[in-house]
Amino acid sequence: MEKTRQPTREELIADHAGTEAALQRAGQEAVLEHARAGLPVPTWENGKVVWLQPEEVFALLGRR
Question: What is the pTM of this model?
Answer without folding.
Answer: 0.68
